[in-house]
Design a protein that fits this description.
With 326 residues, the chain is mainly alpha-helical. Helix content is 64%, strand content 0%. The N and C termini lie far apart (84 Å). The C terminus is likely disordered.
Length: 326
C-alpha cells in the first residue's frame, strides 16, 4: 500500500502546487472574483478523474469476460502507466523552475478572455494529474496482492490528503521544504515502483499468451526472501520484487530501472552560454596634448598626483581632468 500512498502524495502535491500558484496569482492581482471559476475547474477535473478510474475498474471487472482478456487489459494499462510515470518525473524535473511563470502567463491570457477560460485553464492544469493518478493507481494496485481494494484506495486517498495539507501549509508559508529534493527522492522511488509495474505487465502478457516463458524462472530465493514475511511483503508491495520471477520479468525490471534511474539522478547539463561578441576597436578621441591620464574609478585617488601644471585644453571637460596641484 505504500506504493499507492506514494503515488497519491506525488501526484497530489503536483496538482496542489498548480492550484496554489493559480490562487496566489489571483489573490495578489486583486482578482478574487475569479476564484470560483478556478475551483469549478478543479472540481470538474477531480470528478472526471474519479469517473475515469471507475471506468477502468468497471472495464476490467465487468466488461471483460475471459481471464485472458483481463490479463491483456491489465498488461496494456501497466505499460501505459509506466510511460506516464516516466514522462511525468522527467517533465517535472525539467519544468519545475519555469512552471510558475508559465501558469501565470496562461492565467493572464485566460483572465482577458473571460470566466469560462479561467475555469478551463484550471481544469486542464489539474485534469492531467488526475487522469495520470487514476491510471497509475490502477496499475500499481493490481500489481500487488489485494488489487484495487479498500486498503489500496485508502492509501491513495491518504497520500492525496497529505499532499493537500502540505500544499496548504506551503501556500500559507507555514512550511518550507526543498521541493527540488522532495521531487528527486519521490521520483527515484516512483521509478522503482514503475519498474515493478512493468514487471507485472510482462507477467500479464505471459499469462495472456502474448509473451513466452511463463514457467521459465530466473531463480528461486524463497528460502531467503520469504514472501510471507514482512520484508518480503514490503518489497513485493512497493517494487514488485518477488522471490521467483521469470526470466522476462527480471530482464524487464532491470532494463527499465537501471538506465532510467541513472538518467534521472544525473545532473542535467548546464545550458550553453552564447559565444561572446568579438571585441571591436572603438574609435577614441585624439588625446589632448600633455593632458594627464585619468585613473580608473576603482583605483583613482581622491586627488591626482600628476605633476604637469598645464591647464586642460578647452575641448576637454574640465570636470574630468585631475587637479593640477598635488
Amino acid at each position: 500500500m505504500f506504493a499507492t500512498y506514494l503515488i497519491g502524495l506525488r501526484e497530489g502535491l503536483e496538482a496542489t502546487l498548480v492550484v496554489s500558484i493559480l490562487v496566489a496569482f489571483l489573490v495578489k492581482s486583486q482578482r478574487r472574483d475569479r476564484l470560483p471559476q478556478v475551483w469549478a475547474g478543479v472540481g470538474l477535473a477531480v470528478v472526471l478523474s474519479v469517473v475515469f478510474g471507475s471506468l477502468i475498474q468497471y472495464t476490467s471487472t465487468s466488461l471483460l469476460r475471459t481471464s485472458e482478456s483481463r490479463e491483456l487489459f491489465e498488461a496494456v494499462t501497466s505499460v501505459a502507466a509506466v510511460v506516464f510515470v516516466t514522462w511525468m518525473i522527467f517533465w517535472m524535473r525539467r519544468a519545475a523552475r519555469s512552471i510558475a511563470g508559465e501558469l501565470r502567463g496562461k492565467l493572464t491570457e485566460a483572465l482577458a478572455v473571460g470566466s469560462l477560460a479561467v475555469a478551463g485553464m484550471a481544469f486542464l492544469a489539474v485534469v492531467r494529474e488526475g487522469l495520470e493518478t487514476a491510471l497509475i493507481f490502477y496499475a500499481a494496485a493490481e500489481s500487488v496482492a489485494g488489487g484495487t481494494g479498500a486498503g489500496s484506495l485508502l492509501a491513495l486517498v491518504g497520500g492525496i490528503a497529505t499532499a493537500v495539507v502540505i500544499g496548504f501549509l506551503l501556500y500559507r508559508s507555514a512550511l518550507k521544504i526543498n521541493l527540488s529534493r522532495f521531487f528527486t527522492w519521490t521520483g527515484a522511488l516512483l521509478i522503482l515502483v514503475a519498474a515493478g509495474i512493468l514487471k507485472y505487465g510482462v507477467h500479464d502478457f505471459q499469462e495472456a499468451g502474448v509473451l513466452p516463458g511463463l514457467n521459465n524462472q530466473a531463480f528461486d530465493i524463497s528460502a531467503t526472501l520469504d514472501p510471507n514475511a514482512w520484508y518480503g511483503a514490503l518489497l513485493a508491495g512497493m517494487f514488485n520484487i518477488t522471490a521467483a520471477p521469470t526470466v522476462l520479468e527480471l530482464v524487464a525490471w532491470v532494463a527499465y530501472a537501471v538506465p532510467v534511474l541513472v538518467l534521472f539522478l544525473r545532473k542535467p547539463a548546464a545550458p550553453a552560454k552564447p559565444p561572446a561578441a568579438p571585441a571591436t576597436d572603438a574609435p577614441t578621441a585624439a588625446p589632448a596634448a600633455d593632458a594627464p591620464t585619468v585613473a580608473s574609478a576603482g583605483n583613482a585617488p581622491a586627488e591626482s598626483t600628476a605633476t604637469t601644471p598645464e591647464p586642460a585644453p578647452a575641448a576637454v571637460d574640465a570636470a574630468a581632468v585631475p587637479s593640477p596641484r598635488a
